[in-house]
Design goal:
globular, 13 helices, single chain, 282 residues, alpha/beta, 17% strand
């Protein structure tokens, strides 16, 4: 499905009931500016393979992905699935690079950001580093993700008063993407984005994802080594690949069910209709 608005071209694919946007690098700034100019809150979701599996259900996270204004793929396997079903070479982004590119775009427009998540000391260091790396970007507030539930409305009120162009959330925020989705109507406007380790990475307390592993689609290996119990995820991954294969077999071109063949006039089959056409031409 493609949508066009003025000079900007938006394209969204339906990949086994999960929306994924085609975001070319040259259209990045224009697309972000379009989200910022909206009168409502627009959410960006960085979609990994496990996120994609979860988004096919009926959970709050699935609704979060389906209602997001921009769903950006980050998985190489997901990229292959899109090519397999739709014949499209889908651009994908290394998540932290996407965050940096987003902040760079905001800095050019002298926009603002509110950072929420992580622990107070880590958040303070990350905020300081963001200010140093993006001097034209206004950091209008920050909040640790360790706030009590009773203080949640005060946190939301603080964000609302700050009215940031971007709410950047990371680890420590209960609910993650879902928190931003559930409370989206309480914010004034702007863009929201959750990327788990972004605050720790800005603070220098967590290593960035290996670009080489990410390029090869092996960026999941370090996580499996530190959390081996997540090996169970291989089973739903295999199921997704089987579903994609089934859809492709049903329609080799689009991965959708082909229309039923209709018979010719008076119940004639394909050959009968062909003979009628030949008689008329003669």
């Amino acid at each position: 499905m493609a949508e066009k608005s003025g000079t900007e071209r938006k394209e969204r694919l339906n990949v086994l009931s999960v929306p994924i946007d085609v975001l070319e690098d040259e259209a990045f700034e224009e697309r972000i500016e379009s989200l910022l100019s909206s009168d409502s809150v627009e959410q960006i979701v960085l979609l990994g393979l496990w996120d994609y599996v979860r988004a096919r259900g009926r959970s709050v996270f699935a609704r979060t992905v389906r209602s997001a204004s921009l769903v950006v793929p980050a998985s190489k396997t997901l990229q292959h699935i899109v090519w397999f079903l739709h014949g499209r070479r889908l651009p994908r982004y290394l998540p932290f690079d996407f965050v940096v590119k987003l902040l760079t775009t905001l800095e050019k427009k002298e926009r603002s950001v509110y950072i929420i998540g992580s622990r107070p000391e880590t958040l303070q260091r990350a905020t300081s580093n963001v200010r140093g790396s993006f001097p034209g970007l206004h950091v209008v507030g920050r909040c640790s993700g360790e706030f009590d539930r009773a203080d949640e409305e005060n946190v939301i009120l603080a964000i609302r008063k700050a009215s940031p162009s971007l709410i950047l959330a990371g680890n420590g925020l209960a609910g993650r993407d879902k928190w931003l989705y559930i409370h989206r109507e309480k914010f004034v406007r702007g863009v929201t984005l959750w990327y788990g380790p972004c605050i720790e990475m800005f603070a220098g307390k967590r290593k960035r994802t290996s670009r080489e592993l990410w390029r090869r689609g092996l960026d999941f290996l370090p996580e499996f080594l530190t959390r081996p119990w997540r090996i169970y995820r291989l089973f739903p991954y295999a199921w997704i690949l089987l579903v994609a294969l089934g859809m492709r077999l049903r329609d080799p071109i689009r991965g959708v069910r082909p229309p039923k063949r209709t018979k010719g006039r008076r119940g004639k089959g394909r050959r009968g209709a062909h003979r009628d056409g030949a008689d008329r031409r003669s």
